[in-house]
Amino acid sequence: EVQLVESGGGLVQPGRSLRLSCVASGFTFDDYAIHWVRQAPGKGLEWVSSINWNSATINYADSVKGRFTISRDNAKNSLYLQMSSLRPEDAAVYYCAKDRGSNPGHGCDIWGQGTKVSVSS
Amino acid sequence: SYVLTQPPSLSVAPGGTAKITCGGDNIGDTVVHWYQQKPGQAPVLVIYYDSDRPSGIPARFSGSNSGNTATLTISSVAAGDEADYYCQVWDTSGDHRGVFGTGTKVTVL
Predict the structure, then answer these.
(1) Cα–Cα distance measured from residue B24 to residue A38, given in angstroms and rounded to the nearest whole number
(2) Which of A63, B27, B96, B99 lies deepest, with the highest CB count within 10 Å?
(3) pLDDT tens track for B63-94
């Protein structure tokens, strides 16, 4: 079965760090770009970051640039999002999503179920 | 930054046609993808490259893109089509980034 499974969410205090993971199965992970997309409670989708197939091209939304770091380990079929200096506005469900292409921009055809991040003191 | 504007909501009777617009500056010069999201679920890709359908998506879903507006059309609307719909582009001006539209809630009357 083709799937993405996120983990690592939870409750964290403002200013602290958290690392999200996403494990892929059922497809050749290192052939595709992968994205992180988040959704705050009751709000729309917000693109967060993307990484191409070989990690040569990485992009971030302005809202997280300098605080979040995306990475992947193709040997482990895994994607990561290291989040630091977390703010209350970072609270959201975080989805990983597989792009249809090896570089971003071709549409996301596989999504995980999401992992919830809460930021509060 | 690039902005995609969608109507917040749209109501349609069963069997009718829903047309969801996505407005952006010269959006016709890029490719648009569309997602359906039902409550408590992850988004599902319903249209990519303006008008292509992934396998498993009914032919009732179609798309077009020209000028400053992209459109997702759902024909013969059924109760199961009630959901939020988002357009998305990959903005290559300046720093490359993904951009989602503001989202449209489709209600089947």
Answers:
(1) 22
(2) B27
(3) 999 999 999 999 999 999 999 999 999 999 88
Query: What's A77's DSSP letter?
Result: T
Q: Which residue has the tokens 């359906």?
A: B36
Q: Give burial (CB, 10 Å; 0-12/13-18/19+) of A31.
A: exposed
Of A71, A76, A66, nearest in space to A56 by CA: A71
Tell if the CB–CB gap between A59 and B96 is shorter than 8 Å. Answer: yes
Q: Which of residues 16-55 of A touch B (CB under 8 A)?
A: 35, 37, 44-47, 50
Beta bridge partners of A3: A25
Q: Where are the beta strands (DSSP E) in B1-109?
A: 9-12, 18-23, 33-37, 44-47, 61-66, 69-74, 83-91, 97-100, 104-108
CB burial of A91-101 (b: ≥16 within 10 Å; e: otherwise) equals bbbbbbbbbbe
The candidate with the shortest Cα–Cα distance to B20, out of B3, B38, B36, B39, is B36
B33 touches chain A (CB under 8 A): yes
Span A71-100, pLDDT tens digits: 999 999 999 999 999 999 999 999 999 999
- Tokens at residue A44, please? 């729309």
B27 φ, ψ (degrees, to nearest 5): -60, -25
**Looking at the partner chain, which of B1, B97, B100 has a beta carbon nearest the beta carbon of A45?**
B100
- Could you count the other beta carbons within 10 Å of the beta carbon of residue A14? 14
